[in-house]
Amino acid sequence: MRYLPLSDTDRGEMLARIGVKSVDDLFADIPKDKLLKNLIDLPRRKGEMEVERILSRMASRNVSASSVPFFVGAGAYKHHVPATVDHLIQRSEFLTSYTPYQPEIAQGTLQYLFEFQTQVAALTGMEVANASMYDGSTGTGEAVLMAHRVTKRRKAVLSGGLHPHYVDVVKTLSDMASDDVVTLAPDVSATEDLLAQIDDSVSCVVVQTPDVFGNVRDLKPIAEKTRQHGALLIAVFTEAVSLGLVQSPGSQGADIVVGEGQSIGNALNFGGPYVGLFAAKSKYIRQMPGRLCGETVDADGNRGFVLTLSTREQHIRRDKATSNICTNSGLCTLAFTIHMTLLGEAGLTRLARINHANAVKLADRLAGVKDVEVLNKTFFNEFTVKLAKPAADVVEQLAEKGVLGGVPVSRLLPGAGLDNLLLVASTEVNTDDDRAAFVAALKEVL
Amino acid sequence: MLNRQGRPSAPQAHGVSDPAAGMGDEAARLQGDASKAGGAAGSHPTFTGNKALAQIEPLIFEIGHTETTGVDLDEPDAFKPRLGGLERKDAIGLPGLSEPEAMRHYVRLSQMNYGIDTGLFPLGSCTMKHNARLNERMARLPGFSDVHPLQPVSTVKGALELMSELARYLVTLTNMTTVALSPKAGAHGELCGMMAIKAAIEARGEGKTRTVVLVPDSAHGTNPATAALIGFTVKPVPAREDGWVHVEDVKKLLGPDVAAIMLTNPNTCGLFENQVAEIAKAIHDAGAYFYCDGANFNAIVGKAKPGDLGVDAMHINLHKTFSTPHGGGGPGSGPVVLSARLAPYAPVPFVTVTDGGEPTLVEHEEDAAEKPFGRMTAFHGQMGMYVRALSYMLSHGSDGMKQASEDAVLNANYIRASLADLFSQPFGDKPCMHEVLFDDTWLKDTGVTTLDFAKAMIDEGYHPMTMYFPLVVHGAMLIEPTESESKASLDLFIATLRDLAMAAKKGDKDRFVGAPYHAPRRRLDETRAARTPVLKWTPPAPVAEAAE
Ligand SMILES: Cc1ncc(COP(=O)(O)O)c(C=O)c1O
Predict the structure, then answer these.
(1) Is pLDDT at B20 greater than 60 in this prediction?
(2) What is the model's pLDDT at position B353?
(3) Residue B5 has pLDDT above 50, yes or no
């Protein structure tokens, strides 16, 4: 077996040194009747060629985003990732290292985490950021728990513009922890009255911007009301590129900012692995979940970095920890920070403008199609259209014509009576030809 | 005997220059002060402060500029924005680097890191086994990596096929009823399993009364943290002098208030819980559930099936047992296998297969025949890790996976037997599973701690073992070589540890308390980092202010 260096001679010599006759003597603590006598009923080992053949066949049954005009978003976005990013994250020293428990031989990881935290803090307009969560949705669940610890209240209010998967993650966690959640109805037009929900019993209000329907929301009035009532504003985003063009949540008064970082540096990957970004005001730092990297010096006085404030964490505090998270999104964090460093402010803001411009062009073209109505007054790179037919059917028919035309709202919110709504995203990868193909196919289908 | 401090946070003071002595040597070097450069090696200072391949690398904020970019994009034609007046007006403060600069920055950073590909990485409980590049190549096939989670299901048939094939492998290897694939790492898998248990208990109408979860003292911190996260009260099962959890200790704690036990097997002391079947029976008789922390499943794949041992739920760290890369702290993937008693509560989404047909994706509770407890995460979990893990399983096959478990256990016992005369085994001289645990009794009166010993290993070119975990032994050293090491590699490792041990016993304290001497950094001041947290770069004060 190509991955196993020991030869039978080695094994024999090693058993002799240990002083046992057979390897099964080392498994003697397994109850006799439970120790397997035969091989498990699965295929035997295979060479590289055969494995490649099997997996390539499966992969070929999927339509990849780059192979078609592609407008699917709703929380994960198709962006172009520079070749440099994937090369660098595959360097052995990054790919095959562990969480940096031994800082003297993990300065590479620790320095990029420190740079990452600084980038995320700047991008979100917050004072501190952690070294990542699993993804935006689980990060949102953690943000709600953190708000409960800070406010010592246990009721979260979720905006109807929050991604339905995120709503479900928060609800699942809150139900299990016996916390209260108020979920507002799906809010396609961003007209819900969140302010009316905020009183002295509320721990936090969770608002996504741009929201799942694409609307760009003004957080300032909500921030003001939460502050008056001692509640926290948790601002969520699922499209990190939007932060290059839209006012940061921090500048609008958010207390915790959490979001999905997939858009920068990371592939679609059918939903994971992604990287959760998590930032907060520094006064809440000791209630934050996750790893934090901090600057210090070594014994020679040289600058270096370590994981710090670990007295919040499970390995020290056990059942009193701020979170149970251990492994986070290391390598996706690296991909994010490399891509962000390649972009820089000039590149990120331009990328954001291109995304917005492409979405505006697409919205204008779709608005000209009969039986299509663009619902958004505001949007960044994604918006909602109303069709004359159920969007799920339309999307299937578009796929048959070789266009992946978006996410039917019913895929996220079945039974909500929003069957004719379609979420359409457009990023820098879309060309005029893509848009023309989309419009042409849509005309045929409708 | 318990070490409640967890990981040590303060470096030893011995032989350490005053960390508060103003500007560090590196800063001096960066400013071209050759007279101060030199560091530990000392004798041949360089102008740059670099030492050949060991390059000093500043932060991107010190070398980049906000107007620099390494990505060529064309500015869009003028258009009317639709942001409702919420455009950003302030600068963000994100420096950019051109592509060559960026390449060099990250390559230099990588060179300050130790990985499995660098050398033996015996980090107990973490399973640093070889990461085959075939798996990386497979995960990057556009049909897997460039596919959106919400594309029409008709366009992702292969993705669903892969998920159901992975599920079949995991269920077969464990003899369990089903698997929830979506959890994002081990701890998230624990949460998923404990949520399934809570849902089952609530369905029985015992949600208000069964509120206690038993967790042995030797458990990983994520176990009690997980139980507490969803409102359970954690009751410890005390540690025993033989390293095993005893069924009579468990029975004493059982009652109508107990929801579950969270038991790691093989446990964190490197031992297979030899009373696991009796414990499972006692737990079930008391109406509770058996959660197994499967972080150490890699020792028994192909040798025993958790389902045969009475397990109700167990997470599998694909990033340990099935070799998906740890990537400097993730991403992981923590599928949870479930018994028939818990299977109905598995969260959405999941993939089902109806006789010979195509796998179907169930994304909503109302579409499920059973009673999903909810959703753990957006989308479908860690697809990129599923591909790598399946690639590992296909490559190894049932024979290779069994051999891998046996070799992992053999390697650990070889180290144990080769060090037993010098190191102290807290639970006596007996076989271990895939990792061997020593304590620090043997270092008594040497003035050398487990931490010092670990740092001296760094100088010898090794990543240290896991230190100070599990908490039930003093100064724990948990060594997990994995099946990826050759005998020659183990022999050199053993010889090195023996040499270090003899040096410690002979009183060569210097080799330890000041270590590491040869790493990219000397020992780092963790106390200072925690006392005055500096968690991001801030621009230096303008010269005029600084001069005041
Ligand atoms: C015994 C044990 N349980 C649970 C975990 C948590 O797994 P993860 O880091 O994937 O969340 C670990 C990993 O460090 C572990 O060693």
Answers:
(1) no
(2) 87
(3) no
Question: Which B positions 238-277 lie with beta carbon below 8 A of chain A?
Answer: 271-274, 276-277
Q: Edge-to-edge strands of the sheet including B313-315?
A: B178-180, B336-338, B313-315, B289-293, B258-264, B212-216, B233-237
**Pairing between β-strand A407-408 and β-strand A421-425 as defined by DSSP bridges:** antiparallel
Examine the pLDDT at B176 and tell me if it is beyond 50: yes
Query: In percent, how much of chain A has pLDDT > 70?
Result: 100
Residue of B nearest to A351 (CA): B73
CATH classification code of A345-445? 3.90.1150.10
Q: Chain B contacts of A412, Cβ < 8 Å? A: 150
Query: A31 and B80 in contact by Cβ < 8 A?
Result: no
Interface test with chain B among A111, A134, A260, by most B beta carbons within 10 Å: A134
Q: Which tops the pLDDT comparison, B30 or A206? A: A206
Helix axes B157-174, A48-60, angle to 10 degrees: 130
Tell me the CATH class for A83-340.
alpha beta
Cα–Cα distance, A25 to A419 (Å, whole number): 63
A6 closest CB neighbour out of B18, B397, B486: B486
| Mean pLDDT over each residue of chain A, to the nearest integer | 98
- Residue A78 touches chain B, beta carbons under 8 Å: yes
B460 Cβ under 8 Å from any chain A Cβ: no
Pocket of ligand 1, candidates B220, B229, B263, B437: which has the most ligand atoms within 8 Å of its Cβ, to mutate? B220
C-alpha distance from residue A185 to each of A157, A233, B322 (Å)? 11, 19, 42
Record the tokens describing residue A80, joined without a space.
């172009």
**Record: contact B147-A57, CB cut-off 8 A:** no
Residues 6+ apart with CB under 8 A from A165: A75, A137, A412, B375, B377, B378, B379
Both tokens assigned to A223: 């921030």
Confidence band for B541, pLDDT divided at 50, 70 and 90 = confident
Condensed to tens digits (0 to 9), the pLDDT of residues A65-80 reads 999 999 999 999 999 9
Here the ipTM equals: 0.98
Asked if A241 has any chain B CB less than 8 Å from its own CB, the reply is no
Residue B506 CB contacts under 8 Å (≥ 6 apart), including other chains = none
In percent, the amount of chain B with pLDDT more than 70 equals: 91
What are the domain boundaries of chain A?
83-340, 345-445
Q: Which of B68, B75, B77 sits opposite A350 (nearest CB)?
A: B75
The least confident of A22-36, A87-101, B19-33, B382-396 is B19-33
Q: Which atom of ligand 1 is nearest to the CA of A325?
A: 11
What average pLDDT does the segment B343-352 reach? Answer: 97
Structure tokens at A404: 């992946």
pLDDT band at B547 (very low <50, low <70, confident <90, very high): very low
Third-level CATH fold of B180-379: Aspartate Aminotransferase; domain 2 (3.40.640)
- Burial classification of residue B74, based on how many CB atoms lie within 10 Å of its CB (0-12 exposed, 13-18 middle, 19 or more buried): exposed
Q: Between β-strands B436-438 and B477-479, what pairing exists: parallel, antiparallel or unpaired?
A: antiparallel
Residue burial B473-505, b: 16+ Cβ < 10 Å; e: rest = bbbbbbbbbbbbbebeebebbbebbeebbebbe
Six-digit token string for A144: 């709600």
